[in-house]
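Researcher: Next entry in the queue.
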Amino acid sequence: MDFQFTEEQLMIRDVARRIAQEKIAPSAEHWDKVGEFPLENIRLLGENGLMGIEVPTEYGGAGLDSIGYVLAMFEIAAADCAHSTIMSVNNTLYCNGLLRNGTEEQKHKYVTPIATGEAIGAYALTEPQSGSDASAMRTRAVLSADGSHYVINGKKSWITSGPVAKYIMLFAVTDPAAGAKGITAFIVDTGREGFFRGKTEPKLGIRASATCEIEFQDYRLPVEDRIGEEGQGFRIAMGVLDAGRIGIAAQAVGLARAAYEAAVAYVKERKSFGQPIGSFQMIQAKIADMKCRLDAAEILTLRAAWAKQQSLATGARFSTEASVAKLTASEAAMYITHQALQIHGGMGYSKEMPLERYFRDAKITEIYEGTSEIQRLVIARNETGLR
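Model: Structure for this entry, 387 residues:
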């Protein structure tokens, strides 16, 4: 792994940093308070290539790599975690899934408008009764007698960007008797009849990232909008989640960095008993522990991005690296935001400072795209070969 970044990687990082500091950070408190989707900011990200960083230019993307994507995610997440959630789903779950598994026609039709920021993409795997056990889904897709379309019925829950998405990567059961091998992937146009959105979820954190339940009632999907072959859906979903976990790891690193930097600045200026509180050994211990966890999370996230990039040439899986990065980074974010809030005392608990938002936002990184418990299972099973 080369620790030297290329000019292109540094360029996309700098673009993300500029937008994060000039546009996103100043408005983050507002979007968190009102809980509304920050459409103008998201369109700005798209106009600057940040909604399709790894998407080739012929499909409207920036044509960069996984390292560049992670560096950009660090910057956006440091400004606001909700914005980075929207960016992560667009890049790694939606665009990456179609680029790896879609046809040329599907890529041009369904990736280009998402990568350019003209429209928003989403990913629908979870159902009310199936979260970590994704193979227990009940949403059904039945092929018509003439083979021209599928009729889809069912519900999906916790769909990030669901309230505003134009296109959604959907996973549904086509062969109930086959278990996980009976799941198939589709691309859904939300403008067709039979598609319904539920209420926007009132969440603890990442409140500007709109999330809802979606429902299909006799939704007719053209057979050409199936992704891959029947029965390949579960494999596609798990492969896409490997990439998605790197995005969440990067999000957690950016968020943790913001909290850490706020804590370091505060301990140098806040005085108690006649001296900066940063001179007290207990505070110094906190800073040291925070720094170690932050650096470990950042390096492991970059390693996972590097492994993902290598997989394009070798075809090797990078699920262990992705799970190690997500587990380490998400738990580091939770720890660091907790300690940063503690260091700030009462002021950290106040909504007058962003620390309480960092703390609320950090929790979700331990939950979505595979809980910390699931990451531990993935890592242990890959290491031991036991199930």
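Model: The radius of gyration is 21 Å.
Researcher: Noted, moving on.
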